[in-house]
């Protein structure tokens, strides 16, 4: 028996209700914007869950957190609109002060039980050189939440509110160093770039001029693997891969 048949890798392209959990406005567009646009174009419902409002995202010493977060919420809503994202669920944590996964995952479990997604897209929590605590904690809490959401005795207060246990089919980890799923985003590349550029506060011209060649080169390199001009990549796993059969992660 082939282990791939025993624990099949779920197919991201077949997802029809997707929850994207990410730390800051702009992260989702950068790592998964092309895939999100493809999915919504094929009829999927996509909900964004930014953990913070990005209120620390400014180099201007005169800027206030309130001003920055107001602007970034607006930019995020605009970007989501371009990609066909229908709902944004702001989790309301402070940028730069995202708590440890143990505290954070409660709100994600509730969210998963409310949205009932077949797929969760988040960042890969096992990136060897990721230094930003918001990124590490968000990603780890999101995968933990996928494991806890189906268990009625985990955060049982949700059940009283009518949010019933929910099992996701697949978890797609973006920016993975061990991707197993390459998505051709030629058709949605322009939308992805347009959506990234909605985050005007983060990509003024001088930043964009150095950042764009990076994102293009990376997308082209991924694309080569599948004979496409540009691609996004994910490590796609089922909840079983993430706990019960953790030694099958290479499939
Ligand atoms: Zn970020």
Automatic annotation (TrEMBL):
Gene Ontology terms for molecular function: hydrolase activity, acting on carbon-nitrogen (but not peptide) bonds, in linear amides
Entry's InterPro entries? GlcNAc_PI_deacetylase-related, LmbE-like_dom_sf
Q: Which Pfam families match?
A: PIG-L
- Record Gene3D superfamilies: LmbE-like
**What name goes with this protein?**
PIG-L family deacetylase
């Amino acid at each position: 028996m082939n282990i791939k048949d025993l624990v099949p890798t779920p197919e991201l392209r077949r997802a029809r209700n997707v929850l994207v959990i990410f730390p800051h406005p702009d992260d989702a567009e950068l790592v998964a914007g092309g895939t999100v646009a493809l999915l919504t174009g094929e009829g999927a419902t996509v909900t964004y869950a930014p953990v913070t409002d990005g209120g620390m995202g400014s180099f201007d010493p005169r800027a206030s957190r309130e001003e920055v977060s107001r602007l970034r919420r607006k930019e995020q809503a605009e970007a989501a609109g371009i990609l066909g994202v229908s709902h944004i669920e702001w989790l309301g944590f402070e940028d730069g002060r995202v708590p440890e996964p143990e505290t954070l995952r409660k709100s994600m479990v509730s969210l998963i039980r409310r949205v009932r997604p077949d797929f969760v897209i988040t960042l890969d929590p096992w990136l060897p050189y990721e230094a930003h605590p918001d990124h590490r904690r968000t990603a780890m809490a999101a995968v933990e939440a996928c494991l806890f959401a189906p268990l009625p005795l985990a955060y049982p207060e949700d059940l009283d509110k009518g949010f019933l246990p929910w099992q996701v089919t697949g978890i797609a980890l973006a920016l993975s160093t061990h991707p197993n799923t390459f998505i051709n985003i030629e058709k949605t590349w322009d939308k992805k770039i347009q959506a990234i550029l909605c985050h005007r506060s983060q990509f003024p011209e001088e930043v964009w001029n150095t950042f764009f060649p990076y994102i293009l080169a990376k997308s082209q390199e991924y694309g080569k693997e599948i004979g496409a001009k540009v691609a996004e990549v994910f490590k796609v796993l089922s909840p079983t891969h993430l706990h019960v059969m953790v030694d099958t992660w290479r499939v």
